[in-house]
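Quick entry between incubations.
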Amino acid sequence: MRSPFVSECGEFRTSYRQDMALYKVPRIRYRVYGILLLFALLPWVVSEYATSLATLCAIASIGAIGLNILTGYTGQISIGVGAFLGVGGYTSAVLTSTLGLSFWISLPLAGLVTALVGALFGIPSLRLKGLYLAMATLAAQVIILYTINHWDALTGGTGGMILSRPTLGGYSFDSEMSYYYLTLAVLVFVYIFTSNLFRSRTGRAFVAVRDRDLAAEVMGINLFRYKVLAFAISSFFVGLAGALMGHYTMVISPEHFEIGVSIEYLAMILIGGLGSVVGSIFGAIFITLLPVFLREVINTAAVYLPQVTEHFGALHQIIFGAIIILFLIYEPEGLAKIWRNIKDSCKLWPFSY
Amino acid sequence: MDMFLQLLVIGLAVGSIYALVALGFVLIYKSSDAINFAQGEFLLVGTYVCLTLITAYGIPFIPALLLTLIFSALLGWAIERVVLRPFIGEPVISMIMATIGLSSLMAGFVHLFWGTSTRVFPTIFPDAPVEIGPIVVSQVYIWSLFTVLALLAIFTLFFKYSKMGIAMRATADDQQAALSMGISVKKVFAVTWGISAIVSAVGGVLLGNINGVNSSLAAIGLKVLPVALLGGLDSIPGVIVGGFIIGILESLAGGYLDQQLGGGVKEVVPFIVLVLILMFKPYGLFGKREIERV
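Done. Structure below.
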């Protein structure tokens, strides 16, 4: 019996265009369209609550893809994502609420401002890597958060800021479903952009920098330029995610952007798979839904063990830490690798080799 | 002027505790090239264990502290064994993420066992403040300073003369060579993590005496990074100097700049220093200059 999932035989490419295609086999292309259609139909099938969770997952995916460009593909660790999300969120908040600009202008501007700030903190990457760069981005996290906390005139300090949902013409994106489509559209854009980025000259340079930076430099890659560029592109997407998050929750305050958020995003790309766009999405969904799932489990368990509910926070931390460590030890390539294994075994079925 | 001296002395005392906690960090980095983002949680666990032994079981301070140190050493050893050993020789990001995961795990257990509310440490040192000229200092600070200096001296001697200390220095220098000379690198790593947990616990008990104990104490685990980096990640004298500098800067910034800038300057100063060091002198004041330059 032929595998119902993939068949790659008999594909002849007769032009460079076919050879360069993102999805080389028509069947895979149709599968991608199919998955996209499923996501598009999702809010019609599930409840409003599930739609809101899906929106959160989509926003997290955008940020995780951004971070993966920097950490997974270019090999530069960043513990500052939380703060960069904050830069995006606050930029959009200031532009729309204080200056009265339209959301459609402020969203890309939020990305651009975050890209600028990211590139600024990426400058030390010329001299630093590994642990030292991680510390530089940690410093960025603390300093940016301090600025947000104390620049009261601009950010409202600890009180935070109020944002509004975007409107287009007379239409307002204030329902769960409409905002879901908005974030899904941005996610699809980010996904396509990133997938294509790594088929381009720039993307290959990023990977070369990650794999062996000195060799990359010998081959004529301008390390400084590409490292800062990686910071900029990555931060642009993180900024988009921050702005989308701000307009979704409609209120932002400094505690939404603390170091814990940075660590969650790192965990997303790690659990999803470093250097994998699909993996970023898997990881984002996994980490976003983990507390929801845990809450369900605890609510069920509370029938028998009533005291368990008050330990939700602690249990979440324990499971979160344990999952990171277990993934690192047993599946360092993350969910993306597990997904590949599943696909491979389907492809080979019924033979295991 | 009085205020300046006052802040200086407090800075010295707090800085000495930073130095102690940073010592644990540097030890691990020196012997295994690993970084421990869970240092703050080690400190937290040690403090809570000591507190529980004193308050819940009524054990006097000194035996309680000794028990805590034994417990910490075992904990450090066990964690090295279970969590960290698979990552020897893995890329930096795996190591960083593993210790970050570890810190989340440990913080979770601390919350589970001891809750989140602030607890007061039973007074160990006499209450009466000491007057040195114009400065009034609480005795806790003086005792902290002396404890830390004594411990640092002990560790310096330990590294210089004891067999284990020499083995640790050898491992730090070149793992391969140490192995071929018959040093058990695994044992060295285990001892390193144990000692690191011990010094963190002492630091935690001292800090707990000054500020009370709650989970925010773990934040010191991050503050130790600038301290270690300022002195040089692999230098024990550097840790002392770095600790004092950061402690004093923090204390002075808190005293003089907080009114102008609206509070919280203390928290951010070490990280501004961190950026400056990374920009201008990434190997720190006394570190080995072998950072891979790109």
